[in-house]
Specification:
- By secondary structure, this protein is mainly β.
- It has 1 helix and 10 strands.
């Protein structure tokens, strides 16, 4: 092979590698530190984003396949304790695929779900008390649930 072919071959290999890396979707195992919504990879049919919060407890919503459902639950702090939310989870990951999550020290929890397939499922979370040193928590927990229908 002549020396003139090596630069072209190196350039072509570099372009192919760049294209492959750019097409790899985000892993669901990656937890971001910021509260940025999940951005589907190129070619996805995401149409809209629905954001749910503490006030949406016991609500029912409908979304279309390809839409992103984001849940942002805000915890609370007091002198005695912090009330912390667990990461929201879908009862049926086939209908709503959880694509990203995060929590914070102040008790907030966040998750993004991609509406993958037709069906109905729930997104659930629980808020629990985490006592500060020298304090005790009540045994109560707060449940949060939203029913989501994907069409």
């Amino acid at each position: 092979m002549s020396s003139a072919r090596f630069p072209a071959a190196s350039l072509a290999a570099g372009l192919v590698l760049t294209a492959v890396v750019a097409c790899v979707p985000f892993s669901s195992a990656v937890t971001r530190t910021s509260h940025m919504p999940y951005v589907p990879h190129a070619g996805s049919s995401a149409k809209a984003e629905l954001t749910l919060s503490n006030r949406d407890n016991d609500r029912s919503v409908s979304v279309e396949r390809g839409e992103v459902v984001t849940v942002r639950l805000v915890g609370s702090r007091a002198e005695q304790a912090t009330w912390k939310w667990e990461v929201p989870a879908a009862a049926d990951g086939h209908v709503l695929e959880r694509t990203d999550t995060s929590t914070s020290r102040n008790g907030d929890a966040w998750a993004a779900f991609l509406a993958e397939n037709d069906g109905t499922t729930t997104i659930d979370s629980v808020e629990r008390c985490a006592p500060n040193p020298g304090y005790e928590c009540p045994g109560a927990v707060m449940d949060w649930k939203v029913t989501v229908t994907v069409r």
